[in-house]
Specification:
With 179 residues, this protein is of the alpha+beta class. The protein contains five helices and four strands.
């Protein structure tokens, strides 16, 4: 059983705006999401170990999560001046990645076999070694939730967590599977 009070405090200490419990049976790995990845809107398709197709097939992702039943969702929410406030969008994305790494470091002590799914592509290295050499940090490489084939809004909704935090907000979401 997860100690959600302790995990929520840790999430706040790491800088997250929100944290909530997630059940793994709410994770639906969809080919439609992978199809969006393949259209390469973010420019990372086939360029990183943490992104499709290198991060594994949908079936491989399903197999990876089978041993878990619970986890946590974590979010960093930014307040924008208007819907075109790209500066706040970028600042919030950077904060989300920093918060995520801090939380991962802290969680590894109690959950050495955790499975992390982040926000956006991997940013650990300036240039990924894919496909020419193995990942430099295979124990710290994780796919984004979308790269894994998940609709983040649906995962949040199914687990009782807000995804839309109101007008002129930006929300970045990641998760850790802990059992």
């Amino acid at each position: 059983m997860l100690d959600m009070e302790k995990l929520e405090k840790l999430a706040k200490d790491c800088g997250f705006t929100c944290c909530g419990e997630m059940t793994v049976d709410t994770l639906e790995f969809l080919p439609e999401v992978r199809d969006m990845c393949e259209h390469n809107t973010c420019g990372m398709w086939n360029k990183s170990w943490a992104c499709p197709p290198a991060c594994g097939t949908l079936e491989e992702m399903r197999d990876r999560v089978k041993r878990y039943t619970r986890g946590i969702l974590v979010q960093t929410v930014g307040q924008m001046e208007d819907s075109f406030d790209f500066e706040v969008m970028q600042e919030t994305a950077v904060a989300q990645n920093e918060n995520f790494q801090k939380m991962w470091d802290a969680l590894e002590k109690d959950y050495p076999d955790l499975l992390a799914m982040g926000t956006g592509g991997c940013t650990k290295c300036k240039k990924c070694t894919y496909p020419d050499a193995p990942c430099r940090f295979p124990n710290r490489m994780c796919p984004s939730m979308e790269g894994a084939g998940l609709v983040v809004n649906a995962v949040c909704t199914k687990n009782g967590m807000k995804y839309n935090h109101g007008p002129n907000t930006i929300c970045y979401t990641a998760c850790f599977l802990l059992e």
